[in-house]
Amino acid sequence: MLESLQIRNFAIIDALQLEFDRGLTALTGETGAGKSILLDALKLVAGDRADSDSIRTGCDRAEISACFDLTDCPSARDWLEHNEMLADGECVIRRILSSGGRSKAFINGASATLTQLRELCDRLVDIHGQHEHQSLQKAAVQRELLDAFVGERRLLGEVAQKYATLRDLEQHLQQAEAGAREREQRIDLLQLYCEEMAQLDPAGVDFDGLLAEFRRLSNAESLLQQSGDALARLYEDENHNVQAALSQCVRELAELAATDGGLAASHELLNGALIQVQEAVAELRAYRDAIEIDDARLDAVNQRIAGLQSLARKHRVEVGELAPLAQSLAAELDELQGDAYDVDALQARLEQARADYAFSADELSRKRRQTAASLSEQISQVMQQLGMSGGRFIIEVEADDPPSAHGSDRIRYLVSANPGQPPKTLARVASGGELSRISLAIQVIMSESSLIPTLIFDEVDSGVGGGVAEIVGRKLRELGRDRQVFCVTHLPQVASQAHHHFRVEKLSGDGDTRTDVTSLDADARLEEIARMLGGVEITAQTRAHANEMINAAE
Fold first, then answer.
1. What is the dihedral of CA 543, 549, 550, 554, to 10 degrees?
2. Separation in Å, CA 482 to CA 48, 211, 492, 545
3. Are 92 and 121 in contact (CB under 8 A)?
4. 290 burial class (0-12, 13-18, 19+ CB within 10 angstroms)?
5. Which helix (H) or strand (E) is 273 found in, with range?
6. Which residues of 399-434 are buried (b: 16+ CB within 10 A; e: fewer)?
7. Residues 198, 202, 204, 205: is their CA dihedral positive or negative?
8. Could you tell me the residue ranges of all domains in the chain?
9. β-bridge pairing 2-10 and 125-128
10. Alpha-carbon distance values, 253 to 243, 260, 261 (Å)
11. In angstroms, rounded to a whole number, what is the distance separating the alpha carbons of residues 524 and 506?
């Protein structure tokens, strides 16, 4: 439940700290005193978008803090724990508005987004506005209210998901049928491209190695001649060759080094040079013997290089990019030839999607009809308690609408305000006052079935009075037995039913205007009820009447 609310520099509130308890709490005051400001502050805590105009004139920022006890709200505890924001069984939500238009939000000291505020406060507080009856005639609102009672979020999500799949397939089939000729042309072109790629196999080619092979083959004669000349000078020339000269020097220096050790180093260097020459000769001989003049191979290599370069120019890429391009073209061809663009296959998938959607939509319709029957009876009973004797409320569910994300049901709210009258739509039957009472009946039933611990009713009793107003107050007091209920009201019959009472006043002085909220004790509460009954001049008779109303509620 809501334990406390702190407000600083918001609208015409300079500083305010309120403590709350369980039961029904009435908020009363003159019109324009600022009762709506308290609800606006709570709505900001619950994730409404901020407006810098809400900051008190002359101030740079406004701050609103709300503290909730989580004892009776396990779903909120679970949410906080899941989001790693749980702290000692309570929840403190802060909202800070700055004059620059930015706002900050915190949950138990951790920075939070507006989405997180909404998700959490949907589990903590339920606000029923005074103008909700005005939207009650809208088909979408009627459907949403019924679905809230059905409570099948999983099924609703399933219907929406299957409808999205159905729409995607319908659009895909339309595109496939409309673009069949263009797709066939693209398939023919891709097949040609893929055949060209397969013939040259760019993925299996080392293009740099191919270029090196081409250079070697095209210069084979020159390489053979020049490697042979070098081999002759090193070894094969019988008269003059490097290896023979080095061998003779090594032998002679070996004899001299035996006489003079100073020549040992020179002998060692020349001996090493002789070994390297011998190894070079072996390498050169093997290289020369391996050289082949192969015009056929040269022509084949030349043609493959030219083919790869031509293909790269055709596709405006580098030769090294041909391999990934070939994969991309093959993947596109597979996709265009696959079921995704196969009209027959798409039609088969579409029929299956329609069957899947119809199955879930029918299940949703069945649950809606079951809930509608029970809910109609409950709302009818509350309507009769609220002064519409003999009134009947009927929720009609007919599965004759085109498929949508919300199912295929046409949902209508019908009402018979008087006995013997056939039920008709709200717009044709209900007056403004009757709409208010019907809306209140729906909200009372919704609240009774809700697990949310804090309920706020903002002048939902508008349009009623007299004995009906007293019944409204009793209903709200009944809700307050198990939950925390706040009611902003102008009716003494409702306020007298409250367990707790706050008065909202607008105070002016010294060129300043501010809103103040006071928790009323028994005497002050009596005076406030008397004011609501008698207006400006409060008489002893008015006070007696107020006292009688309070005692009757107690």
1. 150
2. 27, 88, 23, 29
3. no
4. exposed
5. helix 264-290
6. beeebeebbbbebbbbbbbeeeeebeebeebbeebb
7. positive
8. 185-337
9. unpaired
10. 15, 10, 10
11. 17
Six-digit token string for 174 = 């339309």
User: Would you state the structure tokens that stand for residue 554, as one six-digit string?
Assistant: 């107690």
CA distance 528 to 524: 6
The span from the CA of 521 to the CA of 501, in Å, is 8
Q: Is residue 77 within 8 Å of 88, Cβ to Cβ?
A: no
What is the spatial order of strands in the sheet that 125-128 belongs to? 125-128, 454-458, 484-488, 23-28, 500-509, 512-519
What does the angle CA 256 – CA 259 – CA 263 come to, to the nearest 5 degrees?
A: 50
Do the beta carbons of residue 494 and residue 457 sit within 8 Å?
A: no
Q: Which strands form 13-19's sheet, in the order they lie side by side?
A: 13-19, 2-10, 61-69, 90-98, 103-107, 110-111
Q: What is the pTM of this model?
A: 0.60
If we measure between CA atoms, which residue out of 453, 474, 447, 434 comes closest to residue 378? 447
Going residue by residue through the chain, which has 554 residues, state the pLDDT in tens, using 9 for 90 and above: 999 999 999 988 889 999 999 999 999 988 777 788 888 899 899 888 887 788 888 888 999 999 999 988 888 999 999 998 988 778 999 999 988 778 899 999 999 999 999 999 988 988 876 555 566 778 888 898 899 888 888 999 999 999 999 999 988 887 777 656 677 788 788 889 888 888 888 887 788 888 887 888 887 878 878 888 888 888 877 777 888 888 888 888 888 888 888 888 888 898 888 889 888 888 888 888 777 787 788 888 888 888 888 888 888 888 888 888 888 888 888 877 766 567 778 888 899 999 999 999 999 999 999 999 999 999 898 888 887 788 889 999 998 778 999 999 999 999 887 777 888 887 776 566 677 677 778 777 877 766 788 888 887 777 677 778 888 888 889 888 888 999 988 899 999 999 999 999 988 877 788 888 999 999 999 999 999 887 667 888 888 998 999 898 87
State both tokens at 354.
């329609």
Q: Are 475 and 443 in contact (CB under 8 A)?
A: no
What percent of the residues of the chain are helix, what percent strand, and what percent coil, each to the nearest 5? Answer: 60, 20, 25
**Residue 225, both tokens:** 């001649």
Which residues, in sequence order, are CB contacts of 368 under 8 Å at separation 6+? 146, 147, 150, 397, 407, 409, 411
- Tokens matching residue 247: 């061998």
* CB contact set of 486 (below 8 Å; sequence gap of 6+): 2, 20, 24, 25, 27, 454, 455, 456, 457
DSSP alpha helix (H) spans, 104-241: 114-121, 139-150, 153-178, 180-200, 207-218, 220-231
